[in-house]
Prior knowledge:
single chain; alpha+beta; four-stranded mixed sheet; 4 helices
Amino acid sequence: MKTKYIDIDENKWGVVLIYDFDMLDWDNMAAVMRAFGLKRNKVNYAIRVLSTYNSGLTISNPDLQMSVVFIGQPTSKSQFWNSVSHEMKHVTDAIIEYYAKPCDGESAAYLSGYLLQKVVEEFT
């Protein structure tokens, strides 16, 4: 299991990206999910979903001002980036909602671009 932390605007929001995991990591992943507020029955469902190819999951916790993003095993590089982009949209939505910014404006576009840039930097 690999992790990357993305800090947004000097600790206003944090994103933990978790990827390249396998079944040996499920207990650790479940602990992270519970720490972010996911109930036990939902954790079990989330683990089942993430055990399939081309899956992803985002949990945002406004009280922590953080999101955790899980990216499941992809079937291709393009599918990996599809999943990353999809999950980062959920992160963008959570941050925009928390700070009560308009979700259709430039703020959301810049934030989305920033998040994707940080993930790309991890892989290049």
